[in-house]
Design goal:
Elements: E1 13-16, E2 30-31, E3 37-40, E4 60-62, H1 65-83, E5 93-98, E6 107-114, E7 117-125, E8 127-129, H2 130-146, H3 159-172, H4 205-210, H5 219-223, H6 232-251, H7 255-265, H8 272-279, H9 287-302, H10 312-323, E9 325-329, E10 338-342, H11 344-350, H12 353-370, H13 376-399, H14 410-434
Parallel strand pairs: 1-6, 3-5, 5-7
Antiparallel strand pairs: 2-3, 4-8, 6-7, 9-10
Helix pairs in contact: 1-2, 1-3, 2-3, 3-6, 7-8, 9-12, 10-12, 10-13, 10-14, 11-14, 12-13, 13-14
Length: 446
């Protein structure tokens, strides 16, 4: 499986090695109430960061060691509440503040393993966006939770989990997670903040507003986000989709216990997907089960109605996009790869099973979401495409079918030929539907 890129939205994360040598500030440390967090100030005045042209300077705060210790404890308590967990920490977290040169300064995290367990070091700019701070602390706490029983390598925290939990906590908390100095600095930066004691009625209100005119990301996009998905408006779409995904997982019966089990198993498995399905096996036996469940959650959440349905022609255009898969084709070894598109038939006939399984599972989820907004006549066609693909994956998966492996057994060949004939017939129906009148434009028989 692909490996999830460890990137934090709005910040560049560096997971430094255990042997990294960074000088410790000379100031006396501040310990948090639970003694898990140890904060070192820079011991020198913080210069004014250059904010011109920065998109992340709207909520900048200046971190002070004593208040940061309180903030870390608040963030931890909010995370424990989301997970339904007790405070049983084992690894200390050392936070080192340094004067920033710009408002998007890198946050560096170092995890070190010793004979008696793991410790963590977070290097933070003294002036930082409050939400970046929350996401950084959440990610370190998830890492500490997952590494408590790790004897070898460190756990891999999926980005959708840390981002989704962070957004859920920011939206659902009954008070500010980050304690701020109620004043404005000499530089004019917005450093102040007020306590927020009111209870949030609907933590998904902002998510619903943002996703009203655009569908949430697919599971593949959440699991393996492209670099462009982690910047600008696309980053907000990623965070909102991740929050919705985590929120719905937590709503499952024993959802909190499943997430805790997943975190505990991350260090024992080569990837987070294996840990996920082992922890959620009572709900999802296969990837396809998770895809269907997520599609249904999107249906219930977005609530597409008839007013949002496309025309037949528009529906076919959207279906065209789902049916095509972009690929890079190398004409020769001395030329750059060229962009091309392949059909479902080409995938089924030519790709090995692991590759086609990932591609077709993504298509199935896209079809689930597409049926919400296509014309009434196109709904049946979309469902037929999905049913053909599901039936093919079900039969091929039983035998580990790999058409790129030679020789191909006759039974497998017949299954491929039958699926391709079915897809060809659906393609012909799609062309007919493309030119058919919409129901609203058809004459009234009465």
């Amino acid at each position: 499986m692909k490996r999830l890129v460890q990137v934090c939205l709005g910040a560049c994360w560096l997971w430094a090695s255990a042997n990294a040598q960074v000088a410790r500030p000379a100031t006396s440390p501040v310990r948090s109430h639970s003694a898990q967090f140890i904060i070192y100030g820079s011991g020198q005045p913080s210069p004014s960061p250059r904010t011109t042209g920065s998109a992340s300077n709207k909520h900048l705060i200046r971190l002070e060691p004593t208040l940061l210790a309180v903030s870390c404890e608040r963030i931890k308590q909010a995370l424990l509440w989301q997970l339904g967990a007790k405070d049983q920490w084992r690894g200390k977290v050392c936070l080192v503040l340094f004067p920033p040169r710009n408002p998007d300064e890198t946050i560096v995290v170092t995890s070190s393993r010793f004979a008696d367990g793991w410790t963590y070091r977070v290097e933070l700019p003294e002036v930082v966006e409050s939400e970046r701070l929350v996401r950084a602390i959440v990610r370190v706490l998830l890492l500490e939770f997952s590494n408590r029983n790790a004897s070898g390598r460190s756990a891999e925290i999926p980005l959708w989990l840390s981002e989704g939990l962070s957004e859920q906590m920011l939206a659902a908390s009954t008070m500010d997670l980050v304690v701020q100095q109620s004043q404005t600095g000499a530089t004019g930066l917005p450093l102040g903040g007020t306590a927020r004691e009111e209870r949030k009625v609907n933590p998904l209100a902002r998510v619903h507003e943002h996703l009203r005119d655009r569908p949430p990301l697919t599971l593949e996009e959440l699991s393996w986000p492209a670099e462009e998905q982690l910047a600008g408006e696309q980053a907000e779409l990623y965070r909102n989709s991740a929050q919705l995904f985590v929120h719905e997982l937590l709503r499952l019966k024993d959802g909190r216990a499943c997430l805790r089990a997943m975190l505990a198993g991350l260090a024992r498995n080569l990837n987070w997907q294996t840990a996920f399905f082992r922890a959620f096996d009572a709900h999802f036996q296969r990837q396809l089960d998770l895809e269907k469940w997520w599609a249904l959650q999107v249906v219930h959440f977005t609530g597409y109605g008839p007013a949002q349905h496309r025309s037949n022609a528009e529906s076919c255009q959207e279906l065209d996009a789902v049916m095509r898969t972009p690929v890079q084709v190398s004409v020769s070894s001395d030329t750059l790869p060229q962009h091309a598109e392949v059909s479902l038939q080409a995938i089924i006939e030519g790709w090995d099973y692991p590759r086609q399984r990932n591609a077709l599972q993504a298509k199935i989820q896209q079809l689930w979401m597409l049926r919400l907004r296509v014309s009434p006549l196109a709904v049946t066609l979309v469902d037929n495409y999905r049913q053909v693909l599901e039936a093919y994956l079900s039969e091929a998966g039983k035998t580990g079918f790999a058409p790129a492996t030679k020789p191909v057994r006759p039974a497998f060949r017949r299954m491929v030929e039958q699926t391709i004939r079915q897809l060809d017939a659906l393609d012909a129906r799609r062309e007919t539907l493309r030119n058919s009148p919409d129901a609203a434009n058809q004459p009234n028989p009465n």
